């Protein structure tokens, strides 16, 4: 089963290396990894996607919590979350395919970032299925180059149910 793990780490030299080393040293695969500083420049957020059954994920989480630079570890996939991925796709466009490439980009609300006589560079952001769907549709046109960010995710806040309080009816005189 796929798990998205969010790590809050100290923004220090070697933090990423220690996390990646933990995975490689135990034979676990990282499907995608994204790292960036938070509002506090001394802290970074890592979003890591991996596969494994519950005992393996539990072991990974325990091992991550033992790392010196790790502040917090959360398996986001255990609750409701929002995820996104961005892809830059350079598509070979013959004159007869240019309109089709633009149509596909428009359907997926993607942006054409660069255009040349022989190619378009298209940016698409969305969930993994959306990104994969546009890639599948653009492949017959000829993808020259493809770069994907890997997924980022954030947990959803729980929704509070608002209960309406019944007020006593005013007495008629």
What can you tell me about this protein's structure?
The chain has 173 residues and is α+β, with helices and mostly antiparallel strands. The protein is built from four helices and nine strands, in the order βαββαββαββαββ. The protein has helices at 15-25, 54-66, 98-107, 128-138, and strands at residues 2-10, 30-37, 43-51, 70-75, 81-92, 111-116, 119-126, 143-148, 152-155. The relative contact order is 0.19.
The N- and C-terminal alpha carbons lie at a distance of 67 Å
Radius of gyration equals 23 Å
Q: What does the average pLDDT come to?
A: 90
Shape: elongated
Q: Specify the structural class.
A: alpha+beta
Beta content comes to 35-45%
The major β-sheet equals:
5 strands, antiparallel
Pick out the low-confidence regions. Answer: none
Total count of strands: 9
Summed up, the helix count is 4
SSE series = EHEEHEEHEEHEE
Helical coverage, percent range: 25-40%
What's a concise summary of this model?
The protein has 173 residues and is α+β, with helices and mostly antiparallel strands. The chain has helices spanning 15-25, 54-66, 98-107, 128-138, and strands spanning 2-10, 30-37, 43-51, 70-75, 81-92, 111-116, 119-126, 143-148, 152-155. The chain is built from four helices and nine strands.
